Amino acid sequence: MNIIAITSQKGGVGKTTVAINLSYSLAVRGYSVILVDTDPQGSVGHSLSRNTKKRFGFYDAILDGKPFDELLIKTKLPNYQLITSGITGDYFDEYQINTSTCLKRINYLFDNVRSTSVDFVIVDTSAGIGAITSNIIREIDTVIMPQQSEPLGVRSVPQVLKKILGIRKEGSKINVAGILMTMVNPQLRECVEAESQLRSVLPANIMFQTSIPRDNVFLRASSLGVPVGLLSKNPVPAAMVFDQVAAELEFKLGISNINYQDNGIEGLLD
Ligand SMILES: Nc1ncnc2c1ncn2[C@@H]1O[C@H](COP(=O)(O)OP(=O)(O)OP(=O)(O)O)[C@@H](O)[C@H]1O
Ligand SMILES: [Mg+2]
To answer: pTM of the prediction?
Structure first.
């Protein structure tokens, strides 16, 4: 099992879009997946179905101690389940949180998640690494950092990396799978420069090679409440990009559910 948080210092960089579409691509590749929304704005639930508003979720578990088996919501894909931010998420206030109880309940929740032995748990987080997200990061395995390709956006990268390093120093085993460039517009010079600037200063293995293009289908998909892969019968090209992110993630984690023949470097024909 791999529990992966989608985290960034800045808001509106595409975390929820990445969480929904990457988790869906992983499920389509045959993995069992739970998508967990830990953002009190409840974007995952609101994006995917209006009905999920009435269901218990993450904040009901950590603020009210609601049991784990009341949180899981089935989807039409048998290997893809959701946990929304829940009912209490709407009234969430950082000051309500008694940190030690909250920490214990986050810990307990992720123990329960691990006991399901699904392949992937994708955790959407709110912007910034506040009390809740820090505690989540202590409990999980991997972080993906979406990063909008704009000149000011890239400045927040060192801040997040520093916070994650701090959490590692406290004993967490958290790994950074990579920074994923989002909303890349190849026709905008500033956008292309921001991306290449970041790639030139950071080690190649900390960046995803795949970038998410700016494309209005993502807006359309979230307004219709579906991952982009479900927008039409033949998936639009923008949906394929998340298959590529999923493939790159498999490579980074050293896993695969595709049976490649181990032919070494022998040629295909002779
Ligand atoms: N690649 C993209 N191309 C075009 N629009 C996008 C793209 N990714 C996300 N968007 C749109 O940008 C807006 C912000 O995206 P999203 O909600 O995923 O960001 P977020 O980081 O989760 O925001 P928050 O910090 O508020 O939780 C949404 O309206 C979304 O539909
Ligand atoms: Mg979001």
So the answer is: 0.93
